[in-house]
C-alpha cells in the first residue's frame, strides 16, 4: 500500500502529515499528488469525503517548501477558488494543519466578512489566497489584489464553481491570471457539459477519477418516500424522531424553504438550525459550530451553503425537496457515510418531483428503493397522513367552497405575512447570488 513518504513530498510537509497521525494517502491523493508534482494540469474526480482538499493542498505546500520566494505586493503564488465561505474556511484550516512546518502566508477572502482586514492582509502579498469569486472580483476591481503572479490556480468543487451562476466571475478572474500556470479542478462530479467548460481553463490535463463518475458511496442506504407535498412536513418530523438519527442534514431547494422547514422543526421540539446564503457569516459559523458540537442535531441547508460542511458523524441526509440538478443529489448524500462509515439518505418525493427523481436514478444507475431499511419505523405515520390528506380533500370537494375556505391550510403552504416579506431584502439574481456566495 502506498505511503505518503512514497509520493515525493518535502520533509516539512511529511512531518505535518505524520503529526496528524496519517501514513497512507487516500486513492485521490495517491494519484493527484504525484501528477501535480510533475507540473501537469489535473481534473480530479472523487466523491465527497475522500480527501480532495489535501490532494491539492499538499503539493502546493511542497512547492512553497522547496521553492521559497516572496509573492509581489497585493499578489499571490497560488489561488484557490471555492464556491462557499464555509468551504473556504475548511481549505484554510487544511493549509494551516498541513503547513505548520512550512513558512507561508495565507489570506482568506470571502463575502460576509469586512473587506478592510482582507485588503490589509493582501497588501504585502501572500503565498496562498483562498477566495470566493464574488468578493475576490470586488477586490480585483478595486485594485486591492493582483493575480498576474499566480503560479497555480485551483478550482475546488469544480462542477459547482463552473455552473452558470459562477461562470462569468470565474472567466473574469481567470483572464487576470498568467497563461503559463498550473490549473487543478477537483470535484465530486464532472458532467460532460461542465467538462467542456472546464477545458477552457486547462492545458492537456490529466484526468484522475478514483470512483465511477456520479455514483454515490456504496455504504449509503438510499431510499425514497413518495409523499404528497402537504404531508412532507409530518413525515420529516417522524423521520428525525427515529432513535437511529444521531445527526442529520435536511436539504431544501431554496433559502426561504430552508427557513420555513427549520421553523417547523423547532416548533416540533427538534434542535435545528438553518444555513444558506442569506445568513451572515457569523450566523453560519454559529450554526456549524453547534452542529459539530452536538448542540444542534439537525442542519437545514441549501445546496450551495452545504458545499463547505465538513462534519463527521452525520448519520442521515434527508432530501426534503429533490434538487433540480441530479448531480447535486450526489453532493448532498455525500455528507453521510464519510471516512468508511455507513449512512442513510432518504428522499421525499411528491408527484411534481417525479421527473427529478427519474433524472437522479438515470445518473446514479439505479432505482431508489421505496422500501429500504432507511424507512423503517415511519410506514404507519406516512400512510396515515397520506390517507388523511386524501380524505380531507374528498370531504372538501363534497362540502363545497364554503367548507374548503374554512379548512385550515398546512403552515408549510401559507404565504409569509406581507409585512415580514417587505422587511427582507430582495432576492438577488441567481448569477449575482452565486458569485457572492
Tell me about this structure.
The protein has helices at 11-19, 27-37, 52-66, 85-98, 115-122, 133-142, 158-161, 167-174, 192-198, 232-240, 255-267, 281-293, 303-306, 326-333, 354-364, 379-399, 401-406, 418-423, 430-435; strands at residues 42-45, 76-81, 106-109, 126-131, 152-156, 182-187, 206-209, 220-226, 248-251, 272-275, 298-301, 316-319, 343-349. The protein contains 19 helices and 13 strands. With 437 residues, it is an alpha/beta fold. Helix 3 crosses helix 4 (85-98), helix 6 packs across helix 8 (167-174) and helix 14 (326-333) crosses helix 15. The two termini are 40 Å apart. The radius of gyration is 23 Å and the shape is globular. The chain has two domains: 4-209, P-loop containing nucleotide triphosphate hydrolases (Rossmann fold, 3-Layer(aba) Sandwich), CATH 3.40.50.300; 220-383, Rossmann fold. Helices cover 42% and strands 15% of the residues.
Q: Tags for this entry?
A:
437 residues, alpha/beta, Rossmann fold, 2 domains, 7-stranded parallel beta sheet, 6-stranded parallel beta sheet, 19 helices, 15% strand, globular, disordered C terminus, RNA helicase activity, nucleic acid binding, hydrolase, EC 3.6.4.13, ATP binding
Quick synopsis:
With 437 residues, this protein is α/β, with parallel strands linked by helices. It has helices at residues 11-19, 27-37, 52-66, 85-98, 115-122, 133-142, 158-161, 167-174, 192-198, 232-240, 255-267, 281-293, 303-306, 326-333, 354-364, 379-399, 401-406, 418-423, 430-435, and strands at residues 42-45, 76-81, 106-109, 126-131, 152-156, 182-187, 206-209, 220-226, 248-251, 272-275, 298-301, 316-319, 343-349. It is built from 19 helices and 13 strands.
Amino acid at each position: 500500500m502506498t505511503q505518503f513518504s512514497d509520493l515525493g513530498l518535502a520533509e516539512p510537509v511529511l512531518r505535518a502529515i505524520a503529526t496528524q497521525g496519517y501514513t497512507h494517502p487516500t486513492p485521490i491523493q495517491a494519484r493527484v499528488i504525484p501528477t501535480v508534482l510533475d507540473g501537469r494540469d489535473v481534473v480530479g474526480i472523487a466523491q465527497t469525503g475522500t480527501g480532495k482538499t489535501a490532494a491539492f493542498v499538499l503539493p502546493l505546500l511542497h512547492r512553497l517548501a522547496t521553492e521559497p520566494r516572496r509573492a509581489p505586493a497585493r499578489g499571490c503564488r497560488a489561488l484557490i477558488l471555492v464556491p462557499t465561505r464555509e468551504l473556504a474556511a475548511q481549505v484554510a484550516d487544511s493549509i494551516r494543519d498541513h503547513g505548520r512546518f512550512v513558512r507561508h502566508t495565507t489570506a482568506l477572502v470571502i463575502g460576509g466578512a469586512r473587506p478592510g482586514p482582507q485588503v490589509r492582509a493582501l497588501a504585502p502579498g501572500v503565498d496562498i489566497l483562498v477566495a470566493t469569486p464574488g468578493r475576490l472580483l470586488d477586490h480585483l476591481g478595486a485594485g486591492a489584489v493582483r493575480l498576474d503572479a499566480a503560479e497555480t490556480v485551483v478550482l475546488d468543487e469544480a462542477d459547482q464553481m463552473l455552473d452558470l451562476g459562477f461562470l462569468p466571475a470565474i472567466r473574469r478572474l481567470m483572464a487576470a491570471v498568467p497563461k503559463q500556470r498550473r490549473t487543478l479542478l477537483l470535484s465530486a462530479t464532472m458532467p460532460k457539459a461542465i467538462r467542456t467548460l472546464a477545458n477552457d481553463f486547462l492545458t492537456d490535463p490529466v484526468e484522475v477519477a478514483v470512483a465511477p463518475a456520479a455514483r454515490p458511496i456504496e455504504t449509503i442506504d438510499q431510499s425514497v418516500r413518495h409523499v404528497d407535498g402537504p404531508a412532507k412536513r409530518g413525515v420529516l418530523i417522524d423521520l428525525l424522531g427515529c432513535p437511529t438519527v444521531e445527526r442529520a442534514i435536511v436539504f431544501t431547494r431554496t433559502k426561504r424553504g430552508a427557513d420555513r422547514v427549520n421553523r417547523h422543526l423547532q416548533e416540533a421540539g427538534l434542535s435545528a438550525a438553518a444555513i444558506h446564503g442569506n445568513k451572515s457569516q457569523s450566523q453560519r459559523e454559529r450554526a456549524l459550530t453547534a452542529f459539530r458540537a452536538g448542540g444542534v442535531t439537525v442542519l437545514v441547508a441549501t445546496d450551495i451553503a452545504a458545499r463547505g460542511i465538513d462534519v463527521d458523524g452525520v448519520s442521515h441526509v434527508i432530501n426534503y425537496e429533490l434538487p433540480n440538478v441530479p448531480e447535486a443529489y450526489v453532493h448532498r448524500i455525500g455528507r453521510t457515510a464519510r471516512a468508511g462509515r455507513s449512512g442513510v439518505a432518504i428522499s421525499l418525493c411528491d408527484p411534481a418531483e417525479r421527473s427529478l427523481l427519474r433524472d437522479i436514478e438515470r445518473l446514479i444507475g439505479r432505482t431508489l428503493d421505496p422500501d429500504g431499511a432507511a424507512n423503517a419505523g415511519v410506514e404507519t405515520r406516512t400512510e396515515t397522513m397520506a390517507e388523511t390528506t386524501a380524505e380531507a380533500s374528498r370531504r372538501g370537494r363534497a362540502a363545497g367552497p364554503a367548507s374548503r375556505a374554512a379548512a385550515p391550510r398546512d403552515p408549510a403552504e401559507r404565504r409569509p405575512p406581507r409585512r415580514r416579506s417587505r422587511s427582507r431584502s430582495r432576492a438577488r439574481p441567481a448569477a449575482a447570488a452565486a458569485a457572492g456566495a
